[in-house]
Prior knowledge:
Elements: H1 2-19, H2 23-26, H3 36-48, E1 64-68, E2 84-88, H4 89-97, H5 106-119
Antiparallel strand pairs: 1-2
Helix pairs in contact: 1-3, 4-5
Bound molecules: zinc ion (2 copies).
One zinc ion binds next to strand 1 and helix 4.
Domain HNH nuclease: 40-93
Pfam family, one: HNH
Protein name: HNH endonuclease
Amino acid sequence: MYQKRTSRKQLLARADELLLPQRSEVKSRDSKLYNFEFYLNRAYAFNRDRGKCKVCGDFIMDKIHFHHINPNLSRNLVNRVSNLASVHSECHEKVHDGHDYSSLPKIIWKKILRYREKLNLPS
Ligand SMILES: [Zn+2]
Ligand SMILES: [Zn+2]
C-alpha cells in the first residue's frame, strides 16, 4: 500500500517535470483547450494512463502531449480528465495530420483511426 502510494507520487512528480516545458509551446493555441483546467488535469490524465502513450502504448519519457479526445465539447467539459489522453508528440501528430499510417502495427493504426473519428463528435 505504502509502495503504491509512493510510486504514484513519483509518477506525478515526473509528470510535473515533463509538463513544465510545454507551456510556451501551447501559448499560441486555442485558449479554450489550453486553459488552467487543462494544466491541472493533464497530470491526473498522465497518472491514470500510467505514463504510457494512449496511441502506441509505450512509456512517454519526454515530448508529452495531451490529446483532447473530443475537442468540440464546451469549455467546462473539454478539459475533463476523461477527455484528455497522454500521447507522444509524434503520436499526437499522427492523430491530427490525416496521413495514412496503415503500415504501422494494426493495433496502433486502429487507435489512430478511432481518435480521428472522435474528433468529429458533436459537442
Ligand atoms: Zn506514442
Ligand atoms: Zn489532439
